[in-house]
Each structure stands twice: as structure tokens, then as C-alpha cells.
Amino acid sequence: MLNLFARGHVNRLTDPVGRRLVALGVSPDTMTVLGTVGAVVCSLVFLPGGGLVIGSVLVTLFVLTDLIDGAMARARGHGTPFGAVLDSTCDRMVDGAVFGALAWWALTGGNEPVAAAAALVALVGGQIVSYVKARAESVGLTAEGGLVERAERLLLGLLGAFLAGVGVPYALSVALVVLAVGTVVTLGQRILAVRRSAREVPRA
Hints:
The chain is mostly helical. It has helices spanning 2-23, 28-46, 52-63, 65-76, 81-107, 113-138, 150-165, 171-200. 80% of the residues lie in helices and 0% in strands. The chain starts with a helix and ends with a helix. 40% of the residues are buried. The chain is flat, with a radius of gyration of 18 Å. The chain has eight helices and no strands.
């Protein structure tokens, strides 16, 4: 949903930054790796121990570099196959670190088992959603769209963590349960999209 409604506005902000970094000789792959390392480290250092406010803020800042590397690729006029694989791989690493860390905090210091279970559902479901799209595209089918994609997953998870960190009761549990349900719905939407795409492919 965010991709649909916000992409144009975001690109207008990130494209000048991307052009400047390319002019300085920075590669999109470098930005991808730096953002991933920063997000993973901040997730694992701050979130499990209860540093939800500082952790969610820092992880969000590093995640935003994912927008910058896309702008840098546009500034160069092209991406690369390696860059696409690297970007997707790093995305999965960040998702695992964020939701794994939130689940750990919810089971230990947070004492919120519902939030922990929802975080794991969101994590596993998000990985499968991404896999369905990649597997479909590998056989010439499409699986685009869905209610909750990666941007929404991170937004809801980190917002819930921030609100919990400033003392809003059950904020993380509510955010993660909504996210888990939305992720399951998205998985169903992706499977149906693949089925429709397969029906449109002429039989050999």
C-alpha cells in the first residue's frame, strides 16, 4: 500500500540524495550493506534489552537507506542483477533481526507472549510472502501487491516498539497482532495472484 501511495513523494526526496552520492563515487551496493549492518546491529543491541525507543528510531534511520540505494540506482540509470539479489538478501536479514529481537524482548523483559507469537508469525509469514513472489517470477509468473508488504511490516513493528517504549500499554502486542493478521492475508493474496497469473499463461 505504501508503495502505491507514497512512492512518487518519497522519490522526489531521495532522488537528489542518490544523485549526490553517485557523484561522490558511492555505489548502491555499499549503501545497501551499510544500512543492513546498521539496522541489524541496532536491532540486536537495543531491542532485546528493552531499548525500544532508541532502537526503533535508529533502526528506522538505517532502514531508510534502502530508499537511498534505489535512488542511487536510478541516478546511474540502471541497477544490476547482483544488486537486486544483494538488496533482497539484506532485506531478509533486517526483517529477521528486527522481529526476532522484538520477539525476544516480548518473551523476556516485556512479558508479552502474545506479542512474541505475533512477531514470529509476522517474521515467518513475511519471508514466505517474499519467497512466493520470487518463486513465481522464476517460472515466469507474477505475484504483485498485497495488503501488507515489507514497508508496512517494518512501519507497524517499529511504531509498536516505539509506542511501547514510551509507555503506551499493549502497543506492541496490538501492532504485531494486526501485522500478523495482515501478513497472513497478504500471503493468501499472493497465492491467488500467482494462480491468476498461471491461468493466463497459454498451455504448452
